[in-house]
Amino acid sequence: MSQNIPNIFLPGWGFGSAPLNLALAGSDWQCVDLPGCGEDSGALPASFAAAVEALLQKLPPVCRLGGWSLGGMLALACAQAAPERVKGLTLTGCTPSFIQREGWEWGRPPAELKAFMGKIRQDFAAILPRFTGSFCRGDSDANAAHWLLQHASPMSQAALDAGLIWLFEADLRAGLQGVSCPVVLVHGENDPLTPVAAARWLAEHLPDATLRVIPGKAHAPFAPVVSATSDVAAALQFLRECPPL
């Protein structure tokens, strides 16, 4: 029965599904764009809650979900909203809250995200390489940022703006006990954007979670595919293996 359940993987902000398609090529994962972004022709949701609802309307009745960064947050939110439909989660570089909030120290300062939103409206083409380099800082492979930028899909300004609003709004700490499916957390040891402490917190607060920390990797432990070290190869293999039912 498990072989008939679709396995759908959601990308992070700003890159589209192309890098994940390469990283997960040959696996059972199907990478799709976020609602209203890239090749998704639907309306662009104005809020994180609306994005979750849009995903639930398009997902199969039963599936496994994976996601990287913002995509992981959306996948987790779908499992919170419809636990009977999501039979497994694989979350990469994921956090329950991207920004700092009361009781949550492992996020980015809200003012930092607001300033970033202004910068990408001025010159996204110049900001994206700097942003990518910053979250790949500490990665054992110097090619990680270049690989992501080389394979990133074009994104509209509206989609970029919406995704940052979703990141600003999302706080998934409440309701984690209602996630009944097995969860696999894959996280880079040196992730400077969503610290590994956030993944450890998720592993402690989800009912059935396994954490896999990838040594020497940063926010994108699946990159690059070319010249992969043994640790990267292990991360890719782990991502390709869907969690059990």
Which helices and strands occur, and which strands form pairs?
Elements: E1 7-10, H1 18-23, E2 29-31, H2 48-58, E3 63-68, H3 70-81, E4 86-92, H4 110-135, H5 144-151, H6 157-169, E5 183-188, H7 196-205, E6 209-214, H8 230-240
Parallel strand pairs: 1-2, 1-3, 3-4, 4-5, 5-6
Give a short overview.
With 245 residues, the chain is α/β, with parallel strands linked by helices. 40% of the residues lie in helices and 13% in strands.
Would you mind describing this structure in some detail?
With 245 residues, this protein is α/β, with parallel strands linked by helices. It has a single domain, classed as Alpha/Beta hydrolase fold, catalytic domain (Rossmann fold). The chain is built from eight helices and six strands. The chain has helices spanning 18-23, 48-58, 70-81, 110-135, 144-151, 157-169, 196-205, 230-240; strands spanning 7-10, 29-31, 63-68, 86-92, 183-188, 209-214. A six-stranded parallel sheet has the order 2-1-3-4-5-6, sandwiched between helices. Helix 2 crosses helix 3 (70-81), helix 4 (110-135) crosses helix 5 (144-151) and helix 4 crosses helix 6. The longest helix is centred in the middle third of the chain and has 26 residues, at 110-135. It is globular and about 45 Å long. The relative contact order is 0.19.
